[in-house]
Amino acid sequence: MSTPPPWLRTVDAAGLVDEAGTVRSTIFAEISALATEHGAVNLGQGFPDEDAPREVLDAAIEAINAGVNQYPPGRGMPVLRQAIAEHRERFWGDTVDPDTEVIATTGATEGIAVALLSLAGAGDEVVTLEPYYDSYAAMIGLSGATHRTIPLRGEDFQPEPAEIDAAIGPRTRVVLLNNPHNPTGSVIRPELLERIVARAAAHDAVIVSDEVYEHLVYDDAPFTPAALIPGARERTLTISSAAKTFRVTGWKIGWMTGPAELIDHVLAVKQFTTYVNGAPFQPAVAVGLGLPDSYFDEQRVSLQNRRDLLSDGLRAAGFRVSPSSGSYFVVADAAPLGINDGAVAARELTLDPGVASIPLQAFAPRSTDPVVRSSLRFAFCRTEAAIADASERLRTFAAR
């Protein structure tokens, strides 16, 4: 394909098309392949080393053995939708109707896709934070809408009020949030989240809030689900997923909650994409959502400890490390090491000393911010042994 069709050209911000118009793989796949080939410690992609809780795994096995292997309902199995509603009320005090205000999706990625395809089109604008998760730009492009961004600035990666106001305007159809934020690890301050909601409400825009890291918030950072901000609930679709909370990234079980009318719009698109998903995994995820508070607390504490271990290791190697208040990720600026191109550094560090990361510019390909251009995203959802190994490799490399 030497000249891609127009719809494919629109997704170039996600790294799918190069300047010559040739379809190519993303740097995410390239770094992972290099890590495997060269035996690097892979702190690039965000998938855990450890397995799901035993109760969740056993529930999936039991469901398969019991014959739960055919099409589930399009909205998701009742047991899962009920568990999602109970989980939402238990942790956030948000009451949703499991029959009309909840839908199961094929992971959070499909939830984002069907939300955008059902709500936005040519002539509309979709606003995201920048840097942004790579699938956002691709799906905005496929919807036909125009992508606008609110840059995250400063050491703690927060949006500026003036730039919020400038980005969200009369053509804004959807504000696509991600909080806690991938790739930066930031948690958006409540007053800034309130400003985003107010601007969306002023222009009658829908908020799609990707909150897959809702349980991975550290240091008592003030995380608030977007739907709970005054004026937001009637216009907000909230997306979450079993992948991060229960370490089952391969199951692809996500969900969306929100007003019945918006959920119906999403369902109308979903039935022509994946239709349904993961029958035996749905009751297993329901079991996970009902685990005691201690499970969620222990996972958060464990990952916070790994974040600290990795951050200390990166500082010892000479990186300038940004605070990470949530997610699986920490951002480290390589400029103090004399590195001003993160894409080159990510490839070279994967080969020697053998530590894989993702350049921050992969999540903000049009940014000219020098910090974005020189920074790398590292994942700390690995074992402590793997993180310690990576830290020592980087420290030794920097000493050389």
TrEMBL record:
Keyword Metal-binding set for record: no
Residue ranges of every copy of the Aminotransferase class I/classII large domain listed in the record: 41-393
Gene Ontology terms, MF aspect: kynurenine-oxoglutarate transaminase activity; pyridoxal phosphate binding
Keywords: Aminotransferase, Pyridoxal phosphate, Transferase
Protein's UniProt keywords contain Metal-binding: no
Cofactor(s) for this UniProt protein: pyridoxal 5'-phosphate
Entry's family note: Belongs to the class-I pyridoxal-phosphate-dependent aminotransferase family.
UniProt name for this protein: Aminotransferase class I/II-fold pyridoxal phosphate-dependent enzyme
Annotated organism of origin: Microcella pacifica
Taxonomic classification: Bacteria, Bacillati, Actinomycetota, Actinomycetes, Micrococcales
